[in-house]
């Protein structure tokens, strides 16, 4: 089983819908991250969390929210999805300076 | 402020040829540098990292990178390309190990010709 698991792997939704992407990890790491990947732009940080009570905005947090339900779980929500949020989303944990990524959640907003 | 520039969004080499993927960084403090690889339909995984010890860093699958402060570069090389090396490669920079702010480059897609 993967150390960092994301669900769903693929999702198509419509403008205005609420979407939640879930992430769980078995690495035992305190630090968790949500990134967005767009072609030609690399990865951009949306939110990060250093522990259950510590949540921080990244460089592109507008339109997103997160919840850290437990050390192992970190979910990303789009309250009202819009087409320019169509992207590949990655959850990651951090340990010893290294990021460990999930396989990604591809979201399409029509 | 930090930044990373990867020269060439797409690089194509023949199987067995040298692989060279270019990365230049900008940082106001000594940087920590990383190369990550993303295989199709997978997440990113660490290839290698520079943490101010040896300037020549060896990673997995015979990849290596050399930190050159004078050139602000951290290019990735592999002596002999294999078909399985086809992937997207990302260079990243941060100011300290464990820092929350890790800046990624835009990525270079490596294709291998038979």
Write a structural description:
The complex is a heterodimer of chains A (110) and B (114). By secondary structure, chain A is mostly beta strands. Chain A contains no helices and eleven strands. In chain A, the strands form two sheets. In chain A, strands 2, 4, 5, 6, 9, 10 and 11 form a seven-stranded mixed beta sheet that branches. The mean pLDDT of chain A is 94. The model of chain B has no long low-confidence stretch (mean pLDDT 92). Chain B has strands at residues 3-7, 10-14, 19-26, 32-38, 44-50, 56-58, 64-68, 73-78, 87-94, 103-104, 108-113. The relative contact order of chain B is 0.33. Chain B is mainly β and 114 residues long. Classes of the chains: A mainly beta (110), B mainly beta (114). At the A-B interface, strand 5, strand 9 and strand 10 of A face strand 4 and strand 5 of B.
What general form of chain B does the structure show? globular
- Let me know the number of strands of chain B: 11
Which runs of chain A of at least 5 residues are low in confidence (pLDDT < 50)?
none
Order of helices and strands of chain B: EEEEEEEEEEE
General form of chain A: globular
Amino-to-carboxy terminus distance of chain A:
32 Å
Which structural class fits the helix and strand makeup of chain B? mainly beta
Structural class of chain A: mainly beta
Gyration radius of chain A, rounded: 13 Å
Main sheet overview of chain A: 7 strands, mixed
Portion of residues in helices of chain B? Answer: under 10%
The stretches of 5 or more residues of chain B where confidence is low (pLDDT under 50) are none
> Averaging pLDDT over every residue of chain A, what do you get?
94
